[in-house]
Amino acid sequence: MVLAALVMALGAGCGAPVRQASEPDGGRREHEAPGTEPREGGQARENGDGRGARAVGVATYNVYLGAGLKPLFDAGSRAELVTRAGELYAAMEATDFRERAAALADLLAARAPEVVGLQEVARWERGPAGGDLTVRYDFLRLLLDELAARGTPYRTVAANDNFTGRMAVSATEEARFTDRDVIVVRDGPPASSRPRTSRATSAAYGAQATLPSRIPGLSFEVPRGWSSVDVTVRGGTFRFATTHLEAFGTPDVRAAQARELAAALAGSPHPVVLTGDFNSRPTDASGAYGILAGAGYTDAWTAAGGDPDGGWTAGQSGSLLAGNELSHRIDHVLYRPDGVRAVTAEVVGDREADRSAPTGFWPSDHAGVLAGLRFGGGR
Predict the structure, then answer these.
(1) Facing residues of 164 across strands?
(2) Residue (of 345, 340, 206, 364) closest to 277 by Cα position
(3) Cβ-based neighbour number of residue 319 at 10 Å
(4) Phi/psi of residue 336, nearest 5 degrees
(5) What are the boundaries of each domain within the chain?
(6) pLDDT in tens, 259-304
(7) How do 123-128 and 173-186 pair as beta strands?
């Protein structure tokens, strides 16, 4: 059994939440900077310069791999590990990504951002022990199909595999899970408005967590990485990146990953838009959020007028059936340099109306963040 990469499990949690004093839904859902109009046709529009030029829509969404994997690490024997792996697979099926993908697609299609960074885009395979495995659930394919069915097609332009592992889920069957970060761009008509992309890049972090196990001789390593692509839309070009920083282990690993990422993007000849699940709150001054702020990144949520103590994106329990439990903000749209301006920011997937049908799942255990950005030169 390949167990080292099953730390994938940890992508499902984000530590103990601390509920902030705010409105029951985590504060105002959508903010617009002064001099902006409400979004029209899913896009932010600014009228402050008299030209009504459209802002570029960008988004980040951790779509949830489908189950909380941490119970694997509490297994005291290999037999117990197999039992828990089988339970994990069943829990993933119970949260029904086919149904959730429809809810996610509803949210994205209604707003149609030009570029979206996705995290925890799982691929689950299963088959006989020692035999070939077949893909049972490809979260990326399911989501793209739902978007296309709504007349809002997207295409994949960059992706990175984070962790993967194969292990027994019963006495006769094995399964493999692969965690991915993915960048997709809008691909619908008219052709003149489709983003053009180049220089797709992905890389693994040198810093990664190694977690202990109760099973003698077994530990869990957690590879993670990032992807980026240069996007040209309406005459302007920017570099768009997405990542999912480490959720467990020591904060030092997450901080080291943030430093690696900032250094990797520092040489961009274009403005940079950095999205993802950073597992780091705005109060984390010495951690990943503070490191990126120190590297010149601005938070689109607060720049567009969002409540610094609201805009919650994480904390929902894994069954996705409880009430709204979002309690902290760790999913961000960041950008640099100063010539970029956030004119709108919105949290999505946090209202009762956003739940799936017919079961009523939340779209994910995270909410998504969308922003409308204006770039220098009137783009």
Answers:
(1) 178
(2) 364
(3) 14
(4) -155, 155
(5) 4-15+32-374
(6) 999 999 999 999 999 999 999 999 999 999 999 999 999 999 999 9
(7) antiparallel
Instruction: Please say whether the beta carbons of 143 and 66 come within 8 A.
Output: no
Q: At what angle do helices 97-111 and 139-149 cross, to 10 degrees?
A: 50
| Rounded distance between C-alpha atoms, residue 227 and residue 239, angstroms | 10
Q: One-letter amino acid identity for 95?
A: T
Kindly report, residue by residue over 71-110, the tens digit of the pLDDT: 888 889 999 999 999 999 999 999 999 999 999 999 999 9
Instruction: Write the CA distances from 211 to 7, 214, 221, integer angstroms.
Output: 8, 10, 6
Alpha-carbon 84 to chain mean position: 26
Give SS3 for 77: coil
Per the document, the length of the chain is 379
Q: What is the spatial distance between Cα 118 and Cα 214, in angstroms, rounded to a whole number?
A: 32
The CATH class given to the 4-15+32-374 domain equals alpha beta
Q: What distance separates the 2 farthest-apart alpha carbons in the chain?
A: 68
Handedness of CA 200, 206, 210, 216 (dihedral sign): positive
Contact 123, 67 (CB under 8 A): no
The amino acid present at 174, given as its one-letter code, is E
The continuous run of DSSP H or E covering 88 comes out as: helix 78-94
Residue 22 to residues 77, 197, 286, 355, Cα–Cα distance (Å): 44, 40, 24, 22
